[in-house]
Amino acid sequence: MEKVGIGLIGSQFISTIHAESIKKVANAEILAVMSPTPGHASAFAEKHQIPHHFTKLEVMLAMDEIQMIVIGAPNYLHCEITCKAAAAGKHVVVEKPLAMNLEEADLMIDTCKKAGVKLMYAEELCFTPKYVRLKGLLDEGALGRPIILKQSEKHDGPHAAHFWDVERSGGGVTMDMGCHAFQFFRWLNKNNPVKSVYAHMQTSVHGDKTIGDDNAIIIVEFENGVTGIAEESWTKLGGMDDRAEIHGSEGVAYADVLQGNSIQTYSTKGVGYAVEKAGNTIGWSFTMYEEIWNYGFPQEFEHFVDCVLNDKDPLVTGEDGRAVLEIIYAAYASAGSGKKVELPFKPSVKKPYKLWKK
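^ thats the sequence. predicted structure below, dont judge the formating
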């Protein structure tokens, strides 16, 4: 069986999810992991039985056996790594958000096109089983014409320090989690163009850690009249909360990724998850089984590997990542001005949060 050789970039939370997910893909093999922090890559490689580990990107990219790299590095490194990987002839999977700004996004897209490699955008909500079924209900006409789309993702804050630092992340919870909702809406609505964005943001709990937004409500208006409502929070205790709704002209559907597919749990110590404890789970929480599959990560990587093996177009592309980034920019601009922002939007700053915190 032909397998796609994969190199992982990063050795923390999201790269653990990548590693565990790729292990479930028959046509894939993780050959190497790279992290510039001494000891991180070697420990990660030992834990996940990966044959090679590196502290220098260029050394890993020189491996001919690697066909695809997966970027789990902080946001501000996505563009540089993508361009180097493309120059080395590697297909690229980039974790959300695609880049820090639209200029970087355009450079990544153009560089990968010129190099003849695929730029794939890792948005797992397009592969999450409950959400795939939700979209199926819409596509088959069971709900009629879509009117309102809703998606919310909430927990008590990010797992790595760079998310709190807006200079390295580009923004707060809207940058970190709003990106999920925006691509989710675009996917449900068949990539209909976005007409306008209106957002309200606050730093309500974590002001001692960040100047970024830790709560946000964003309204996305599409040209075909569909409205998307995103609710994002870094202030919700008790573990992850991830749910969506479709309100149509002939029906309504609700999907909760965790409840109904989990074990209601009370613990005085907190619950350990398959990958890593998801937020503060002391007290009541929802304990996941098959957590990674339930979120669609193995399905996502099975698709990306198939795209490389059989030269298929990915479901979620660099262009999709750029479109999401434009919506993120418009959201921060709206929160900063208190007004609805029309698209297309051409920002004048390199980091989205600066349109809100001026």
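The mean pLDDT is 94.
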